Amino acid sequence: MTTPPATRATPMTPADRRAAIVDAVLPLVAARGAEVTSRDLAAAAGVAEGTLFRAFGDKRTLVGAVAYEGLHRASGPEATRAELAGIDPADPLEDRLTAAIELGRARMAEVVRWMSVLRSLHERAGDAPDPTSAQATELRARLLGQRELQRNVTVHGLQDLLRPDAHRLRVPVDVAVAVLEASIAGTHGRIDRLTPAPPARVVADVLVHGLVSDDRRPSAPDGRPAPADAPAHGSGTPHPEEP
Helix 93-125 and helix 14-32: axis angle, to 10°? Predict the structure, then answer.
């Protein structure tokens, strides 16, 4: 019986090879940023350093491509839609808002992480001309378009999240969504953070119940309203969030 000749695997196209390398090294760049070495990148990708340079030209170009891909994934509208749709509408409003805040903070943290990598690359380059500037401009335009789609998906997802309790809201749903978005963005948008960002549960409780209570009962440490028999602030017992 004649053994058929072995078939050679179809070689990867240059674009496929670059995409495979970016996917392989993305976790490493996420952890190490622009400080990562070419040797470590090659090891993570399972290729020789020369292969990296043939595919991307230099380390800066590769790390930049990885950062743009990280931003692309962090700004994915379909993933955002699925995450928000996965929050059970039957859960109490505070629980739904807590979940939405945690998801939003995680997304924002990823965006900030990759923006920091790109900023570091730019600072290292100084005034040196960037041979990939035209490509970078195109990528930025695509990312801006995607971020706008993601924002629209987020707004609709938060509206759906609030709709079961629309009759309880003191403000229109659109206003509630804007306040919720601001509370998420403020976690990473403050230049001079004087105090740590409060837990998502505490923020959700404040959004639902406000800052002022007529009976001035304290909140529990996790942000949930305290039992009815809890001592009032006026009795001398400090709020758990107070020093």
Answer: 100
